Structure formats: C-alpha cells, structure tokens
Amino acid sequence: MASTANSTPALFDRALLRARQDRARRGAPANFLLDRVIEDMIDRLQAVTREFSAAADIWTPGVALQEALRARCQSIRHVDAEDREALALPPQSLDLAVSALAFQFVNDLPGVLAQIRRALKPDGLLLAAMTGGDTLAELRQSFAAAEAECEGGASPRVAPFADLRDIGSLLQRAGLALPVTDVDRVVVRYDSAFSLMRDLRRMGATNVLVERRRTPTRRATLLRMAQIYAERFSDPDGRLRATFDIIWLSGWAPHESQQQPLKPGSAKASLEAAVKGKK
User: Residue 156 to residues 19, 44, 161: CA-CA distances in angstroms?
Assistant: First the structure.
C-alpha cells in the first residue's frame, strides 16, 4: 500500500471518491449496507462496559453513525474524507475511534492505523468495519471474463480487497493490543447486474482506482458481462447474487489493566504433558 509520504503510487483517487460520495448523497443514496454496519457497531459497543468521553468518526459517509453514537459518547467529531490521509488528531485525545465502510478506500492503511493508535488514550478503543475478502467477486469475475472475450484483456474495475489475516497483522503492526477481526458475509440479490451497478453508484462506491480505464466501456462488453453474471451467479428464481464481506476490526491502545500474554517459559504445565495425559 502507498504511504502518506507518497513513496509509492496511490491505488485510489480519493478526490474522485469524495466527489462520487457527495453526488450519491445528493441523489437517492443506497444506504442498506451502511445502515446494517451502523446497527451492528452500536450492538458491539453495547458489550463494552465503559464510558467514552471523546470519540472520532473517521471518514464514515454521512452523519448517521455520529447521530447513533451521541447517546453513548459525550463528544464525537467527524473526520471528513480528504485527498490526504493525515488525520490531524492530537496524541492521546480519544477514548474511541470508529469508522464504517471507509477503510477499503485507504491508500496507506498501516499509516492510518498507526495515526489512530497515537490518537487513542491508554485503553482507548478502535472499532471499524470495511469491505474486504470476496466482496463483489461475482462482478469482478464477470467483467474479467467479458473483457477477455470482447476486448482481449481485462482492465482494473473492482478494487483489490484485504483479507482477514492481513487486517489482523496490520492491527498488531500499528501497536494495538488485543486485536480482533471477523467477517460478516452479506449476500444481496438483484434482478440484473445493471441493478447492482446502479446501487454501487448510489453508494458512491464505483471504480475510483487511479489505474482505472478512462474511456467508456463498450456496450458489447457490458451486455456480455451481464450475460456471464446471469449464467454463473443466478439462483433458481433467476435473481443474481452479489457478495459483500464486511470485515470487522478492533484493537485497544495498550494499558496495564489489559490481559497480558504469558511470558515464554512461565506455563505451569508443558504441552507434552498435556498431550500424554489425554492418551
């Protein structure tokens, strides 16, 4: 991934992302995934028995997450999506950092997680959700097959998504303690591939790859893509499946009160003895 110092080329055009999200909000936005994530986030925070005096919502589209958290947090600020990925959060200023469906468009996720770690007070919590894994695998495969047939090769259309193990490693790399990751797989059904693509536009989640094709897709390629999608990913009733994998990630700023791993050699019994005892 690219760094905030631009040591490597960026994957995502974040100015275009912001423009498309703004356009989606001005129209008829499709918020069903975001609404699901926000509801789940509130439920997950209910299990945390502590107060959050200062919180930050990092790049979540819209204001729904902030409004849902107001009853739980004394103050919450919204960090708007910007071209640059510097968060400008003072060190040890937050009890809680949250983000919903934004981190999948970050060029330097390790750098952003490290910034959040510095902004958290000791025992402060990061809780975020991002698309990853097999999200839109059906659309990606259908476009690749159609372009191979109609144009002799595929172009970048759907962003590469991180997997669960990658995210867990990044949390540890950022210095967050007690990292936890899990996946919520959501399968949405559509009448056609074009209905799915309309929803992606209404989410502000269409292609913002820097290396995206800049010319319109040929009509023949689009029609062939829709045909392949229907052939490979339809249910018996003719409706098409679209997969969204929501990766949940959480971690805490280290604090002495947290559970600590045992030091090497401090175990009371050996694994060998435990195994022999089961025979």
Answer: 20, 35, 13
